[in-house]
Amino acid sequence: xxxxxxxFLFVWLVQLLSIGVLGGGIYILYEWYEGExxxxxxxxxxxxxxxxSFGGRWISLPLLRRSGAEEPxxxxxxxxxxxxxxxxxxxxxxxxxxxxxxxxxxxxxWGPNSTVWYYAKRQLSDRxxxxxxxxxxxxxxxxxxxxDHSVEKxxxxxxxxxxxxxxxxxxxxxxxxxxxxxxTFCRLFREQLGSxxxxxxxxxxxxxxxxxxxxxxxxxxxxxxPLLEPVLYLTTVLWPIFWLMTWLSxxxxxxxxxVELSGFTGTETRGQLSFAGLLSAxxxxxxxxxxxxxxxxxxxxxxxxxxxVPVLVxxxxxxxxxxxxxxxxxxxxxxxxxxxxLKPGGHMALMEQNQQFAEVVSTFCAGCSxxxxxx
Length: 375
Fold this sequence. Notes:
alpha/beta; Rossmann fold; eight-stranded mixed beta sheet; 14 helices
């Protein structure tokens, strides 16, 4: 699941519910043990609730979705660079595909890590040099010592990744927050557009504060200051408790419901849903909260008109995290762009519609490669 401002509160409420259910089961067992609740029914009910709290995923997951032909797995490369940054963070950068291939740098969204690109790595690395990296604090990249999780910091990190990509101009592909990072990169390092950067691919992302382009944006904007921000600041302090809550919701299966609603459309496989759920549980709530707070300050509306390289905008037709209207706005203001809508597709269409996603990315990258070598 991608953690965006609009769904952070919903995830938090589901986690609180998981704590409440477990507490209720333990209370029933205790009262039965003390003799306050008499009968085998209460013993069985308490045991079922407690057991469900720690193993419900094994029941709910098969009920939600069927297995697919090729399920995603954690796939890491043996070709790795570790980039040390001035703020103390260390970036994990991995390389797939032929060294002389057109380089594509994939920046993942907020919540998972670079293993979310399982299908893209398999389907694109036969002809392209696919480069993935873990955002600081996620996956195998360590978090900055100064707790700077701003989009500007990540854009400067991306510039360091570009520098180690070789001599060929790269194509920057970003999903969700990864696309936001790409847009900020274009503002901070405009001189690299056309020379070091041959093109952009913006996937299910936005050009401004995500609360303005998500579902129920009017309500979410009103809740940002009085509710969302206090909860996020609380999470940065009490993150170990929130992490335990996250894992409890993972084991009881309720996390799959939030993943399903926020990212998929119902055509995903059992393995895709399970993989996305596990990636969601792995991210530190403290890191996720700081990055989410940073998104509130994001606005690259004025940057769009200055981007002078080809841009492919991709969005899921029913994405609720960054509604298609955001992609349509970017398409209208980017000088050289095209828009593709994946149907059916939500915020995780890159996984749910992975074959179609890889085909359109491959076609666009091949076109950028031809343009970069043309006289």
